[in-house]
Specification:
alpha/beta, 2-enoyl-CoA Hydratase, Chain A, domain 1, six-stranded mixed beta sheet, four-stranded mixed beta sheet, 10 helices
C-alpha cells in the first residue's frame, strides 16, 4: 500500500489529495474541501478530485447523490494563484482545462449533485455552486466572479451566468467583479435556498435525498432539457486566454500584491485587486 501522505491518483473513496475528504452518509456522499491554511484555494489535484468524486458517485451502485461543501467560512474561492501545488501527483497544472476541472461533469451528472455553500464562494467555486442541481447557501455566504481582475476570459461564466441570472445582471457581476451577498444571490436566482449559518450541509443532504426519491430516468430527461437553457462555452478562446499575456500579468500582479499594469495609473488602488 502507498504511504498515506504520498501524493497519488484518486482510487476508491480517496480523491487524490488530502485536502478533499470523501464521507458517506448512507447512500449520500459528501465531498468536503478542507485546506484551511490556504483558505480552501484549489490546486489542480483538488479540482480533478472533485471531478473524480462526481464520476465515482455515478459509478458506485450504493451511492445515490453527492453533496459538495467547504470548511469554516470558506466554500471554494477558486484556484490557488500562489502556485503552491503541495499535493501534486502529476503535471495537472499543465493540463488544467475543461477535461480536468469538474464543471461539465457536474452539469452532466446522472446522479444528483447539491452544493452546500458555507461561506465565501468565488471563481471555480461559484461555477460549482451554479452547475450543481441545487445550491443551499448560508445566509452569511458571499459570491464573486473575479476572473477579469486576473486577466482570464472565463467563457464558462460568460456562457452560463446569463442563463442563470439574466444578461444585465451577468454583465454587472462579471464586468465589475463585484461581491454579492447571499440575499442578493437568492433574489437574483443565482441560488435557490438560503439557511442560517451552520445548517447548510444538513439541508443540502436533505435536498439530495428529495431529488433521489424522484425517478432517475425521467429525472435525467428533465435535466437534459434544463441544460439546453445554458449556452456552450467557447473552450478554444478560454484556453488561449489562460495561457495569454493578460493572465500572466494577472498572476504576477496577484503574487506581488499590486494592481495589474492594464489599470490606468490614476485608478490604481493599494494592494492587489
Amino acid at each position: 500500500m502507498p504511504d498515506a501522505d504520498e501524493p497519488r491518483p484518486p482510487q476508491g473513496d480517496w480523491l487524490g489529495t488530502p485536502f478533499l475528504r470523501f464521507e458517506r452518509r448512507g447512500s449520500i456522499a459528501v465531498c468536503r474541501v478542507d485546506r484551511p491554511h490556504r483558505r480552501n484555494a484549489m490546486t489542480p489535484a483538488m479540482y480533478f478530485g472533485v471531478r473524480y468524486a462526481v464520476d465515482h458517485v455515478n459509478r458506485t451502485d450504493d451511492l445515490a447523490a453527492l453533496v459538495i461543501t467547504g470548511t469554516g467560512d470558506i466554500f471554494i474561492p477558486g484556484g490557488d494563484l500562489g502556485g503552491d501545488q503541495e499535493d501534486s501527483w502529476a503535471d495537472l497544472a499543465g493540463l488544467l482545462h475543461l477535461d480536468n476541472v469538474p464543471f461539465e461533469a457536474l452539469r452532466n451528472s446522472a446522479k444528483p449533485v447539491v452544493a452546500a455553500v458555507n461561506g465565501f464562494c468565488a471563481g471555480g467555486g461559484l461555477l460549482i455552486a451554479m452547475l450543481a442541481d441545487v445550491a443551499v447557501v448560508s445566509s452569511g455566504a458571499t459570491f464573486q466572479a473575479p476572473e477579469l481582475l486576473r486577466g482570464i476570459a472565463d467563457t464558462g461564466y460568460a456562457a452560463y451566468l446569463p442563463g442563470q441570472i439574466g444578461i444585465p445582471r451577468a454583465r454587472d457581476m462579471l464586468l465589475t467583479a463585484r461581491v454579492i451577498d447571499a440575499p442578493t444571490a437568492l433574489d437574483w436566482g443565482l441560488v435557490t435556498r438560503m439557511v442560517e449559518p451552520g445548517r447548510e450541509l444538513d439541508e443540502a443532504v436533505e435536498v439530495a435525498a428529495q431529488i433521489v426519491r424522484t425517478a432517475p430516468k425521467a429525472r435525467g430527461v428533465v435535466k437534459r432539457e434544463i441544460n439546453r437553457g445554458y449556452e456552450r462555452p467557447d473552450r478554444m478562446s478560454m484556453d488561449e486566454s489562460l495561457f495569454g499575456p493578460e493572465a500572466l500579468e494577472g498572476f504576477h500582479a496577484f503574487k506581488e500584491r499590486r494592481n495589474p499594469d492594464w489599470v490606468p495609473k490614476d485608478l490604481r488602488t493599494e494592494g492587489r485587486l
